[in-house]
Amino acid sequence: MRHPDDFVSRVIGVVESIPPGRVMTYGDVAAAIGSRGARAVGGVLAHYGSTLPWWRVIRASGHPAAGHEAEALERLRVEGTPLAPSSRGARVRLDAARYTPE
DNA sequence: ACGGTGACTAACC
DNA sequence: CGGTTAGCCACCG
Question: Which bases in strand B are touched by protein, i.e. have an atom under 7 Å from a CB?
Fold first, then answer.
């Protein structure tokens, strides 16, 4: 069990708020909860990701989570996320799909 | 308390 | 565009 406003719970809350077809970078999620720990956000997703829309959290480069590119791109494509061709298959058009929680 | 560890990032080359 | 490097941060043993 965890306290409602600890790091993990905050990250989970933000990730759950990302609408289909939109994305946030690890850094965006961290910033949204007043942190700069992009890596720490990755750590939370690595552990609790299975219960969350983890594919909507991508790297600042527009590429999906390291080690999960294939499945993430598939899911992103299904929900109509703006993608652009890239050397490594495809990457998200951050300028069009980036989401900022209010 | 401390050091190692990552689903990270910006800056350089 | 690809490889390297130094920061960054929460978590765990």
Answer: 5-10
CA atoms of A36 and A25, how far apart (whole Å): 12
**Around Cβ A64, how many Cβ atoms within 10 Å?**
27
Q: Please report how many Cα atoms fall inside a 13 Å half-sphere around the Cα of residue A91, on the Cβ side.
A: 14
User: By the 8 A CB rule, do A53 and A65 touch?
Assistant: no
Sign of CA dihedral A62, A65, A69, A74: negative
Closest nucleotide relative to residue A46's CA, C1' based? B7
The SS3 of residue A90 is strand
A77 touches strand C (CB under 7 A): no
Task: Output the pTM of the full model.
Answer: 0.94
Q: What is the pLDDT of residues A56-98, one digit of tens each?
A: 999 999 999 999 999 999 999 999 999 999 988 899 999 999 9
With CA of A38 and C1' of each nucleotide, the nearest comes out as B8
* Strand C bases contacted by the protein (CB, 7 Å): 1-2, 7-11
